[in-house]
Amino acid sequence: MDSDSSSGTHPYTVHSRFARTGLTCTPHVAEHLQRLATPYLTLEPGDAGPDVWHVLADTRPPDHATAEPVSAQGEVTVEYAVDHAHRRIFHLAPGGEAWVTQSLLRATRAIHRSAACRRGALFLHAGLVELNGSGIALVGGSRAGKTSLIMAGVLEGAGLMVCNDDVSLTADPDGGGVLGIGWPRSISVRLDTLDLLFGRDRAETVRASLSHPANETLPSLVDSGVEPHGTALLYPWEYADVLNTKIGHSTRVDAVVHLSLADTPSESRIAAVPPAARGELLEKHALGLPNKHLNIFGHEPDPTSLRRTRTALAALPTFRFRYEFADVRQQVNRLVEYLSEQASQA
Q1: pLDDT at site 219
Q2: Range list of β-strands (E), the chain
Q3: What is the pTM for the complete model shown?
Q4: Helices and strands (H, E) in the chain, number of each type
Q5: Could you tell me which residues are beta bridge partners of residue 107?
């Protein structure tokens, strides 16, 4: 990618499994965005052509464009203008290269995720990881322990992280199982998880090295009581560097594990979920919208594909795992051994 940032804006095309979109920005921003989007989206120079959505920076929107502010908890408000008639979305504010890059990525990701939803992908509040060669969907709401377990599982290359918090799932139409696909999203990590995995000194070094611009304002969540443990945002490439591991674009899903944190060691346990209970349990964690923000691109799903995915997911081996946060590394080993035993008995 050309890194000359002095030559104004240029057109680029962004590809995913589900869509093609246009991007207009400086080459330097494009270079940063490509790093943030890898391995989930690909970026190449050149105009994306007509009839697709375009995301633009440093470009004045038309007067008829609609204001579309995005306010995420603990972050500054990002301002967009949307020209629906010509399928263009403009980044307006805040300024600065870091926020421009983050804003363009957020809008681009939202367009591609909406396209995935239209094609019948099911979005689930779950992480997806490969451990011991098996793809495991780790399902749970906020504070269920997904991020901590995944980080402990992939540390030093022991496993492969595909996504941390919300995965898109599609069933093979020929009955070949379920494919889970990740997305370029920053990973929110509790500060005590960093302390647990790396020790206090290394954790502070990691925090000081992070580049997501919202890390400057996230301490306000501690002060307000929203996030008492504190949190930091890591981009996927930072996550890979910090954990000395790799990030995967997608993987087959071999098992579904519903996570929760145990309050005492005696509460820690693993148990199979009977087939009759799997569908309802999954439904509690299905996302009704493909995006936290910017659900403005059309996302009505294909009902046949969506139904096929739900059926295929409910057919997978499914378990509940309640584990101890303070013993997370050993708990990963416990889960992997248990799933291996279950697979050998199937």
Answers
A1: 83
A2: 10-15, 20-25, 42-45, 54-56, 66-70, 78-83, 88-93, 122-124, 126-131, 134-139, 159-163, 167-171, 178-181, 187-190, 231-234, 246-247, 250-253, 255-261, 269-272, 318-323
A3: 0.92
A4: 10, 20
A5: none
**Per-position DSSP letters for 50-89, written without gaps between them:** SSS-EEESS-PPPTTPEEEEE--TTSPPEEEEEETTTTEE
Residue 35 backbone phi and psi in degrees, to 5: -65, -40
Structure tokens at 150: 């995944």
* Angstrom distance (rounded) from CA 343 to CA 134: 10
**Residue pLDDT, tens place only, 118-134:** 999 999 999 999 999 99
The partner residues of 323 in beta bridges, in order of sequence, read: 261
Residue 175 has pLDDT above 80, yes or no: no
Q: In which residue are the tokens 């499914």 written?
A: 318
CA separation for the pair 135, 137 (Å, rounded): 7
Q: What digits encode the pLDDT tens for the residues 281-336?
A: 999 999 999 999 999 999 999 899 899 999 999 999 999 999 999 999 999 999 99
Q: Please work out, in degrees rounded to the nearest 5, the angle formed at the alpha carbon of residue 116 by the alpha carbons of 112 and 119.
A: 140
Q: Provide the 10 A C-beta neighbour count for residue 43.
A: 19
> Phi-psi region for residue 140, left (φ > 0), alpha (ψ -120 to 50) or beta?
left
Residue 260, token pair as written in the block? 């929760």
Contact 137, 147 (CB under 8 A): no
- Residue 229: predicted pLDDT: 79
- 176-198 per-position pLDDT tens digit: 799 999 999 999 999 999 999 99
Q: Give me the amino acid identity at 43.
A: L
